[in-house]
Amino acid sequence: MRAAATPKAPDEPLATIARLKGAWRLAGLDARAGALGLRSGMGLADARAMHPGLLVAEADAVAEAALYDQLLAWCRRFTPLAAADGPDGMALDVTGVAHLFGGEAALAADVVARLARQGIGARVGIGPNPAVAWALARFARQPILPPAIEMTRLPGMFADFPVAALNISDDLAADLARAGLRRIGDLSLRPRAPLTARFGADLLDRLDHLFGQARSPISPRFAAPDFSVERRFADGLTREDALLTHVGALARELCALMIRHGQGARSLTLTLFRVDGAVRLLEVAASQAMSAPGPMLRLVREKLARLNEGGFETGYGFDVLRLEATQTAPQKPDQGALAGDAGRHGAMIAAPSPAEPPSVSAVIDRLSARLGAMRVTRLHLQDSHQPERAARHAAALAGAPPAGGPRPWPEAAWERPVRLLARPEPVETLALLPDGLPQQFRWRRVLHRVIAADGPERILSDWWKSPAPGMARDYFRAEDEAGQRFWLFRQQQAGAGATWFMHGFFP
Predict the structure, then answer these.
(1) Residue 144: closest CA among 117, 176, 180, 111
(2) Please, what is the Cα angle at 256 between 333 and 302, to 5 degrees?
(3) What angle do CA 292, 295, 297 make, to 5 degrees?
(4) CA 53 to chain centre
(5) Strand partners, 490
(6) Does domain 227-349 sit in CATH 3.30.1490.100?
(7) What is the reported pTM?
(8) pLDDT tens, 155-179?
């Protein structure tokens, strides 16, 4: 946990408290309080009776959850695969990345030192599976096992560990202690059937995970990207121009990597790890797959411009930049003119003319990056007879609907109004005949006299969606004395007369 907000002596124990079941109980402990024999869940009165000098502060669950998420994102500076592991731990898959930090011991020391500079104490365990690493981090004096350790040696190595190293509940550990089973070796020497019958199958499952006899995967909080490149710096980058220069270099590396695999990026994530532990994520998307660094850098610039408007702080600078292609699509290399740029990435790409206007997709991408994806939309047709349901607004970045999707309206239906109300609004009508055309109607407190009308056009309801499939609409085009043209419809109500609605306007 973080250091106390108020000054305290180094030897004073500190705990956070929360109200549970009508009583104040310990929620979190620092190292000093844990060494005194206190534990989470203990009543505050009992803890104060044991140690009157205990300092307490009320727990803030929201702030603690935000801090946990921030730390989990920060852990991705060491590996993309970081997962939550209970309220007080995190699991990192460092397979194949430890050599980048000088080995497993250097990696563990780097993690502990960086967290200590943020005021957070930590213990690190590294083993062949998550269960071993969990036990080593909490109960071992030597928390790192050799990389080439044989799984058959694990039962003997963990024989003297307490049963709590199996990551079981306190109640189950107490039940095992009452039965004289306090060490993991006590369990491994007992027949499995009686243990399962008395303590449940979960106990033996955890034992199998510890000994490598069952798989124990982790569930990363962030999905692994399809392609990823990164750069690390001894000193933090604080200037935006230097930051964009290195982002451009990362974009070129990422494009070269994707081109070799015949892929293009539909969405990118730029992760900026700040020296002081803060993490910034910049996510951009494109309507078409990108395999050139120029469009990528333009989108990142637009995103940074938007963040700068809200106060984008660089602090002491960013020491790790990571650019990831989180969503990709197959893309064939473009064969351009022979006079084009023929040496980049081994592909023949024609250089665009400086006067060439940007494409529609490029404009959509830049506006979406600056304003937000749902601020730039396009209409997608849907399978519905009712006009207000025939189209929906979707992010323009999503692209056009698939070829097998809804078909456009027939030619005769394009005489519908340009402006359509979101919902039909009722109007008061006056007609010479009960089922005849209205001579006048009142809409939004304004009276309109009809001088010409055309119709009806019958539109049925969506029988597969509507609770009243028999209801149909008869649409009319009406013009008033002022030359305004409206789109009205008449709907027959069950057990009542016809009701008229306003639905749109013609130019």
Answers:
(1) 111
(2) 95
(3) 100
(4) 43
(5) 474, 500
(6) yes
(7) 0.67
(8) 889 999 999 999 998 889 999 999 9
Q: What are phi and psi of 28, to 5 degrees?
A: -145, 150
Q: What is the pLDDT of residues 334-350, one digit of tens each?
A: 554 444 444 444 443 33
pLDDT at 5: 41
Residue entry with tokens 């106390």: 4
pLDDT at 250 over 90: yes
Bridge partners, 474 (sequence order): 458, 490
Contact 332, 233 (CB under 8 A): no
pLDDT in tens, 137-158: 999 888 898 877 888 888 889 9
Measured between alpha carbons, how far is 361 from 225 in angstroms, rounded to an integer? 24
For the chain, the domains span: 14-59, 78-210, 227-349, 416-506
pLDDT in tens, 270-279: 999 998 888 9
Tokens of 12: 């004073």
N-term to C-term CA, the chain = 65
- Domain 14-59 CATH assignment equals 3.40.50.1980: no
DSSP assignment letter at 354? T
Q: What is the pLDDT of residue 352?
A: 44
**d(Cα 41, Cα 299) in Å, to the nearest integer?**
50
Q: Is 381 exposed, middle or buried (0-12, 13-18, 19+ CB in 10 A)?
A: middle
416 CA to centre of own chain: 41
DSSP 8-state class, residue 434:
T
pLDDT at 341: 45
CA nearest to 488, candidates 404, 420, 390: 420
